[in-house]
Write a structure and sequence with these properties.
Layout (H helix, E strand, L loop, with lengths): L16 H81 L1 H4 L9 H8 L3
């Protein structure tokens, strides 16, 4: 007495047709889910790369702007240094001939306006 189950006709599968179709549908749904997930991941990766590129571009623009500002400030420092040297020379030259610096009244504790008028040439 043998209890063998005969194979389904034409399918060669031991599962009934409805179970095989159900398994195929599940596999198809899983494939669809995988495809959607991959597409969603691809889009997210593109968005991330784009955002990263924009950030790098913004940093590069900021770098160039700061470089220009730095160059401009260095130029201004040079001009101001030259002006300071020039004004120091002018002051030295003036100190040599200034009557107020050579006036003996500068050392007296007299109110300043009188001291100035007494040292000025008449």
């Amino acid at each position: 007495m043998s209890c063998a189950v005969p194979a389904a006709a034409g399918g060669g599968s031991a599962l009934p047709r409805s179970a095989a179709a159900e398994g195929s549908q599940q596999s198809h749904e899983e494939d669809d889910r995988k495809v959607r997930r991959r597409e969603k991941n691809r889009v997210a990766a593109q968005r991330s790369r784009k955002k990263q590129t924009q950030k790098a571009d913004k940093l590069h623009e900021e770098y160039e702007s700061l470089e220009q500002e730095n160059t401009s400030l260095k130029r201004e420092i040079g001009k101001l240094t030259d002006e300071m040297k020039h004004l120091s020379e002018v002051l030295k030259d003036h100190e040599k001939i200034c009557p107020l610096l050579h006036c003996t009244m500068n050392f007296v504790t007299v109110p300043r306006p009188d001291a100035l008028t007494s040292c000025l040439p008449r």
